[in-house]
Amino acid sequence: MTTNRLTSALRAAQVPPFHAMAMSSKATARAKSGQRTLFLQVGQPSTGAPVRARQAVIDAMRDGSPLGYTNAPGLPALAERIARHYHDVHGQAVASDRITIVSGASAGFTLAFLAAFDAGDRVAVLEPGYPCYRNTLLALGATPVPIAVGPESRWIPTRAMLDAAGPIDGLVIASPSNPTGTTLDSTSLDEIVSWCRERNVQLIADEIYHGITYDGPAPTLAGRAPDAVIINSFSKYFSMTGWRLGWMVVPDHLRDAVDRLQQNLYICAPHVSQIAGLAAFDCTEELDGHVARYAVNRRVLIAGLAAAGIDRIAAADGAFYVYADVGHLADDSMELCHQWLDRLGVATTPGLDFDLARGHRFVRFSYAGEREHLEEACGLLAGWKP
C-alpha cells in the first residue's frame, strides 16, 4: 500500500461512529428478542409519508411511468414548488434554478463540502451539533473547528465565540438545531451572516427541521445571504426519512461545481422520491397535525424528565429533541445510556455524539414517538437507581 493510500485509509478509519445509529441497532435487536423497548433515541418521525405523497407514487407506477433518471438538479416542477414554498412561507424570492434536489440532506452536505472546501480547510461546527457535519468533513480531509455553545448564550454562537475560533474557511449552522432544538432568531441570523461576510467565510445552513417549531416559523437564511448554501430535507417535517430526498439552495459561485459533483456522485435524486416530494407540499394539514402532536409530546417529556430529576435542558423550541445535562447522575453518558437500555428498556442517545468535549454529561431524548411511550419512559427513569 502506498503512503497516500495508507493516509486515506487511516483518515477514513478515524471517522468516529454515529452513536445514535449504533444505539438504534442495539434497541432494535432488544425489541426483536421480545423485550419491552421504548425508543427515545431515534431522530425520525414515527409516522410515514403523507397520504397524497404515497398516492402520487401509486398513480405514477400504475401509469407505467419509467421513473428513470431525471436531470442532475432534479425535476423542474419540484424545484419550482420549493421556490414557491420560500415565497409563501417566508416571503423570500428564490430562483428555482438555484435549487438542486439531492438524495437526502446527507448528500447535500457532502456536495456542499466538496464544492466549497479543499482538503485542509478549517470549517467551524457548533458543539453540541449534528455529528455528521464533523465526521463528513473529516472523511473529506477538511479540519472541523469546534465552537462550544451553551446556556449562557442560549446555545447560539456569538461574535466573540466565532472570533475565538481563529481563521476559518467555513461555518456550519443549524436552526432548529439537533440536538438542542434551539432556533436562531432573525437578529442572530443577521449577526452570523454579517460576521461571515466581513471575513469571507462560506456559510452553510442546515434548515431540515424547518416546519417543526412551536412559536412561529423559524427564520430562513434565504434572502439574507445570497452566497450561503441552504440545505433542507423531506425527512423531518414531511415525515419521509427513508425516501432519501432533500434539496439545496446553491449560491451562484458554487452552482456549476455542485451540478458536476451531483452528476458524478449521485446522477440524480431518486425519481420516485421526487414525485412523492412534489405531492407532499399539498399535505400541510396532515403534516401540521404531526407538529401539534410533537408539541404535546414536548410538554409531556419536559415535565416527565423534571419529575425524574432531569431538569437542566437546552432551549427546545424546535425539532423534536430534549438535550439534557445528566452530570448529576453519571459522568459517562455513554455508559448511562447503555444501562438505561439494558436495565430499563429506555433507548436514548449519549451526548458524546454531539459534543466531544462535554457530551459525557449530556443525553438527547427524542419525542417524535408516541406520548404513552414517553410517559412510560419517564416513569422508569424516575425510579432509576445506578
Query: What is the radius of gyration?
Result: 21 Å
Distance between the termini: 48 Å
Structural class: alpha/beta
Instruction: Report the mean per-residue pLDDT as an integer.
Output: 94
Helix content: 40-55%
Spatial order of the strands forming the largest sheet:
2-8-7-6-5-3-4
User: How many discrete structural domains?
Assistant: 2
* CATH topology heading of the largest domain: Aspartate Aminotransferase, domain 2
Structure overview:
The chain has 386 residues and is of the alpha/beta class. The chain has two domains: 15-44 and 285-382, Aspartate Aminotransferase, domain 1; 51-282, 3-Layer(aba) Sandwich (Aspartate Aminotransferase, domain 2). It is built from 13 helices and twelve strands. The strands form three sheets. The protein has a seven-stranded mixed β-sheet, sandwiched between helices. A three-stranded antiparallel β-sheet has the order 9-12-11. A two-stranded parallel ribbon has the order 1-10. β5 (170-174), α8 and β6 form a beta-alpha-beta unit. α5 crosses α6, α5 (104-116) crosses α9 and α11 (284-307) runs parallel beside α13. The longest helix has 24 residues, at 284-307. It is globular. The mean pLDDT is 94.
